[in-house]
Design a protein that fits this description.
The protein has 166 residues and is an all-alpha fold. The chain contains five helices and no strands. α1 runs antiparallel to α5, α2 packs across α5 and α4 runs antiparallel to α5.
């Protein structure tokens, strides 16, 4: 299949899915984590443990991993068509999401989620893990929010500079 025929829908999917992920991450950074921090430690921790279990569903996986796949293809396409209008934006969008959202999630947020899941909310160890989690998980979530939003903007710019196919 000619890449010119699928690059527009791929880029549009990149705009929409990265934007959706930015919104999810933003919601956690802007108010969910702050609300959980206001609860007693055991209650906030138990709520986050429930969220972390609930979010593992097919809809979230489709958007999160679909965005990731779209970004991999966007980067590959941009390198293969580097001199085409918008290629730099396509590449930037892909790299921003892959590094700032996917890799940050896998390297930082998921291991913290796993550590949180491994302790009891009522334990002394749980309280220590929760205090660390509130600070560090949220900081990395800010990174995911900003880079997903920047990826969305880059994909939107890639759409603007795209040369229409004949």
């Amino acid at each position: 299949m000619n890449s010119d025929k699928w690059i527009f829908p791929l880029t549009l999917f990149g705009v929409l899915s990265c934007g959706l992920m930015a919104g999810i991450f933003f919601a956690f950074s802007a108010f969910v984590m702050q609300a959980l921090a206001r609860l007693p430690a055991d209650k906030g921790m138990a709520a986050m443990q429930s969220i972390n279990t609930t979010i593992l569903n097919s809809v979230f996986f489709l958007v999160f991993f679909g965005s990731t796949a779209a970004c991999v293809f966007a980067v590959i396409h941009s390198f293969r068509h580097w001199h085409a209008p918008g290629a730099v934006y396509l590449c930037a969008g892909g790299v921003l999401y892959l590094v700032g959202s996917f890799i940050v999630t896998v390297v930082f947020n998921v291991p913290m989620n796993d550590a949180l899941a491994a302790v009891s909310p009522a334990s002394h160890e749980g309280a220590k893990v929760w205090a660390n989690y509130l600070t560090n998980w949220t900081a990395w979530n800010h990174v995911r929010t900003i880079t997903s939003l920047a990826a969305t903007a880059a994909f939107a710019l890639a759409l603007q500079y795209r040369v229409p196919s004949a």
